[in-house]
Amino acid sequence: MIAFSTLFGSFVGAGLAFLSNRYFDHVEQKRANLAAGNMAISILSKQYGDFVIFRAHLQAEATTKNKYPDWLQISPSFLSFSEWLVIDMKSLTFILNQGKRELFARLLDVQARYEDLRRLMEINNEACVARDDAIMQAGLAEADPITEQYRFEAAVNATLKAKLTSANAALRHRAKNEFFNYQTTGQELRGLMISLYRVTEVMTFTAMGAKKELVNEPWRLDHDES
Length: 226
Known about the structure:
Low-confidence stretches: none
Order of helices and strands: HHHHHHH
Mean pLDDT: 87
Structural class: mainly alpha
Number of helices: 7
Distance between the termini: 82 Å
Strand content: under 5%
Largest sheet: none
Shape: elongated
């Protein structure tokens, strides 16, 4: 009887230890998911802020230079689109466990588009520098591109002008059409996190680094880039 009691006590003790470990693992996983979700919101907020600033700068410059040929409208950009600003998708697999496959896919898409925009800006910057060098070599650094348009046209070769025109159109398209991708994805991710945790534990989604008036600024360029 004593042996049975001892054996039974051992089983109960082992069971309780197993349950305790499972609960500890659950708590730790929940903490890890919260940290991963907050980190994703933070990175997405910075990407969104970068995009809002890029969008505002592009629109302001294109509006100011709207009488110029399209290959002359955009200057090299010195905005920082960091290659290290990457959402860790592996840490967000708990989103799939919540049945949010579309949200997970949109996060992947937003990340890919951010990286692609960074590369597109690098291509545009390279082309702009080559254009500006050609204009300077032609002695047109202080000339008016409108009154001296024929000289500007002659100073820059056709291949470079075509590259600049293509980059201008691509950047305008991205600025016009991707604004709500960031908004809706960030808001849905935060909404999911709030459904799983206390609202005070979840980071706020915002256009980090961008002035509020830039976020609310409407798209005014009259090109139809859709």
